Amino acid sequence: MPTASNAEPRRVTIEPGGPILVDGPVELELPDGTTVCSDRFRVAVCACRRSKRYPFCDTSHRRKVRR
Q1: Residues spanned by the domain of 49
Q2: Is residue 64 situated within a structural domain?
Q3: Number of domains observed in the structure of the chain
Q4: 25 or 8: which carries more pLDDT confidence?
Q5: 66: in domain
Q6: In sequence order, what DSSP letters do the residues of 15-62 get, joined into one string?
Q7: Is 28:55 a contact under the CB 8 Å cutoff?
Q8: Which of 12, 18, 51, 66 could disulfide-link 46, Cβ–Cβ 3.0 to 4.6 Å?
Q9: Is this structure's pTM higher than 0.85?
Q10: Looking at residue 64, what is its pLDDT?
Q11: Is 50 exceeded by the pLDDT of residue 11?
């Protein structure tokens, strides 16, 4: 098992106008000190704070298009 000194770097992808994608699994610490975990292989972290599932993205950042 890798230790902090020899661990593989975690890939983080910033999507313009979208979420921050992090190769999982991840543990996120929220401003109030609580933690949330996801064991998915890729996690979308909300950058716009519009998500009902914050801190995870639910694509609420996408603009609604009227027909």
Answers
A1: 8-59
A2: no
A3: 1
A4: 25
A5: no
A6: PTTSPEEEESSEEEE-TTS-EEEE-SSEEEE-SSS--TTTTB--STTS
A7: yes
A8: 51
A9: no
A10: 60
A11: yes
